[in-house]
Specification:
With 313 residues, the chain is an alpha/beta fold. The chain is built from nine helices and twelve strands. Bound molecules: NADPH dihydro-nicotinamide-adenine-dinucleotide phosphate (NDP) and oxalic acid.
């Protein structure tokens, strides 16, 4: 048996090369689930995003699980997930920066009414807006003021939007108003003209974007969901847009991915759909994160990005 730690990649086989290349720089025995032969009892570490349910409990000597992404719902949805094994999520400034870019871009496309001008251009029509929207009157509300929500909020604040955030615990971020806990959700929603979801998907946050919460948004509210499809009740969104209460939405994530061709979300003119690309973990940075994480684990250190199993994120 090799003295080198064995790292098992549970990823789509056709993509495995993205990570095996940069991971090859480390002194690890790297195996790819479904491609290579290995013995479950030799697996020390796993790197994955959405492993098949029941798989992770079959490795008796597993020391740490590393997530390819920031969100770990793809692990914790496994009813047999071995909760005693540390699960380390990917927290990376480049990932947060790209997420913030996506959020800023779609906020501005909506705020600056770019879709109106796209439609005008398609008809070679020159028509200036008489009364453009005022930035100071467009209040941004961010559900989840964590790593990504905070950076997105700071970028929008720097563009002069009034920004609020909602989290479990109260935050002190200059220029961002903090709402905390279920008791302050209604007040937060009531002051969010553009609502941006950057929560982790947990039993507490599943379905949080629903008819009841939409009704609490100001008339004409706009929703950007960039967290997980499970946060959104899709028929409730369509109903709120069709009733005229909401002005539209941008969605990067869906309950079913890929989004089925038959989904009405594709064809709703007030909804912008992107295929879960708001930010994609850079394989080189992710590989470095795993190599560093294995070194920490081998030294017996707890990784700072270890998921708190009681909170679920
Ligand atoms: P963090 O864990 O850093 O932040 C989560 C935030 O949500 C925290 O502020 C936390 O509050 C808050 N929160 C969690 N549960 C509740 C609750 N029940 N009530 C109120 N607030 C709550 O996560 P990240 O910022 O790193 O990532 C956010 C999500 O973004 C990921 O989980 C993932 O789903 C998604 N994502 C999507 C990508 C894409 O391409 N579309 C790419 C990367 C991430 P507190 O601070 O008080 O604990
Ligand atoms: C993530 C994602 O969670 O890509 O990192 O969705």
């Amino acid at each position: 048996m090799s003295a080198r730690p064995t790292l098992l990649l549970v990823v789509p086989i056709s993509w495995a090369g993205l990570w095996t290349g940069p991971l090859g720089e480390a002194d690890l025995n790297i195996v790819v689930h479904g491609r290579d032969t290995y013995r479950p009892e030799d697996v020390d570490y796993v790197f994955s995003f959405r492993p098949q349910p029941g798989l992770l409990k079959t490795f008796p000597k597993l020391k740490t699980i590393f997530s390819v992404g920031a969100g770990v719902d793809g692990f914790l949805s496994d009813p047999e997930f071995p909760k005693q094994i540390p699960l380390v999520r990917f927290v990376d400034p480049q990932l947060s920066t790209e997420m913030a870019q996506y959020v800023v871009m779609h906020t501005l496309i909506h705020h600056r009414q770019q879709r109106v001008f796209d439609a005008q251009q398609a008809k070679a029509k020159w028509q200036q807006m008489i009364l453009p929207r005022k930035t100071a009157d467009t209040r941004i509300g961010i559900l989840g003021l964590g790593e990504i929500g905070t950076m997105a909020g700071e970028r929008l604040r720097d563009l002069a939007f009034p920004v609020s955030g909602w989290s479990r615990t109260r935050k002190t971020v200059p220029g961002i108003k903090s709402f905390a806990g279920d008791g302050e959700l209604a007040a937060f929603l009531g002051s969010s003209d553009i609502l941006i979801c950057l929560l982790p998907l947990t039993p507490d946050t599943r379905g949080i974007l629903n008819a009841k919460t939409f009704a609490m948004l100001p008339a004409g509210g706009y929703v950007i969901n960039v967290a997980r499809g499970g946060h959104l009740i899709e028929p409730d969104l369509i109903a709120a847009i069709e009733s005229g209460h909401l002005s539209g939405a941008t969605l990067d994530v869906f309950e079913t991915e890929p989004l089925p061709e038959t989904s009405p979300l594709w064809r709703n003119p007030k909804i912008t759909v992107t295929p879960h690309i708001a930010a994609i973990s850079d394989p080189r940075l992710a590989a470095r994160h795993v190599i560093d994480g294995i070194a920490r684990a081998e030294r017996g250190e707890r990784h700072p990005n270890t998921v708190d199993m009681t909170r679920g994120y």
